[in-house]
Design a protein that fits this description.
homodimer; 208 residues; mainly alpha; 2 domains; elongated; disordered N terminus; DNA-binding; transcription (chains A, B)
DNA sequence: AAAATAGAGGACGGAATTGTTTCTTAGTCT
DNA sequence: AGACTAAGAAACAATTCCGTCCTCTATTTT
């Protein structure tokens, strides 16, 4: 009854022909990161355990204990990873504020559909329970991405595409917040919804 | 170490002089509702159990099992309760759209600071894990409040205080969403923040 | 006043998890 | 080829948690 469907990641790795293989180094670490974020996305940080992650990554618990001593450490490492996690943000430059906003928010919306994006949810909404982890995720993972959005708004101000003094952290937060809210309510965020947020909410707000 | 600070609700009821009293009926039920929502607000629905609620309400587990058979039942009852939960929404009528929005959103912001408001968070953000409960909370608890906001917007349209065809469920969702987001990020939502949401985001959006 | 009801609290057995350890062997290095 | 490192899997003990039952007694009902 409580048995979950088999994890997306094959529980056991097999080589091309079916002979059993054994992953090492980066390959193994990536599999563990993915399993961690999947599990976190599906449950919560409280329920996260090496016990559940190991089989989902197709490995043994000892492999995890050898590399990280707590689930918080593992989660942070997974989120910071460029491949499995969120890594470094890309700076768009479409020439217009509208274009930059669409690129950034659409990209954000897509990531929220993946496990690595959903993994953020339990962390952010359960903030008071893990202040240290929350703080680290905030400064090491979220902040760089926020900075990019604010930066594009500042550039827009310089280009005269947005009213002066409108490029603040507060206004920069509105877009991502609405996208997250839509994601939570509908499970997905359509391109049309992103457009509506940009055209009907953000641009009117930022143009003076 | 894992012992939580004593619950706000006294674990044991004592009469005026210190003689031990024993609650019954409504009084007892209310205490259980409050304990339930407090516990839910502090943790998550997954971690909720009669075992934890009973001592927090200053009663025994058998009392709970006698009245509800599952935690989902109990949670829904608590949220629907007029006193302990959210109950029926109040319809404001200040004469202006701005006034109505300020009243509704400010009231919402205050409720989100209380346990009964925070109790909603784990339910809404963990939606896929309890579809039935989520559905019931949505239709029986949230929907009536949403309806009030939309209704005030419709009235504003009739009065010419808002552009036609602007009073949609989508636009009605923006205010509450931004309030929730601010609440999650900052733990509290100041009156100034509510004002900013109304004046800088909602009114520009709704006035045509 | 006596009987009946239901609250408070704890005991109990069982099921489910968890972190750690141990063991065998695949894959790597010299 | 032989030695070595680390992966994968399982055994282990300890803990936690759950639902039921039992006892005692405060409060209500007759």
């Amino acid at each position: 009854m409580s048995t979950l469907p088999a994890s997306p990641t094959p529980p056991r790795r097999t080589a091309a022909d079916g002979a059993t293989s054994r992953r090492r180094g980066v390959e193994l670490t990536q599999a563990i990161y993915r399993a961690t974020l999947e599990e976190l996305a599906a449950t919560s940080f409280e329920e996260l355990s090496f016990e559940k992650i190991a089989p989902k990554a197709g490995t043994g618990k000892s492999v995890l204990y050898r590399r990280w001593s707590t689930t918080a450490e593992l989660v942070l490492a997974a989120l910071k990873d460029d491949e499995a996690g969120l890594g470094r943000p890309l700076m768009p430059d479409t020439g217009t504020l509208r274009g930059d906003l669409l690129v950034l928010l659409t990209r954000f919306a897509r990531i929220l559909e993946e496990p690595r994006g959903r993994a953020l949810r339990p962390l952010l909404t359960q903030r008071p329970r893990h202040p240290e982890l929350f703080e680290q995720v905030m400064t090491q993972v979220i902040a760089p991405h926020r900075a990019v959005l604010l930066e594009r708004m500042r550039v827009a101000v310089e280009r005269g595409q947005a009213g002066p003094e409108r490029a603040t952290e507060r206004t920069a937060a509105i877009g991502p917040r609405l996208v997250v809210a839509e994601s939570i309510d509908h499970g997905t965020v359509s391109d049309a919804e992103v457009q509506a947020i940009v055209d009907e909410v953000l641009l009117p707000l930022l143009n003076r």
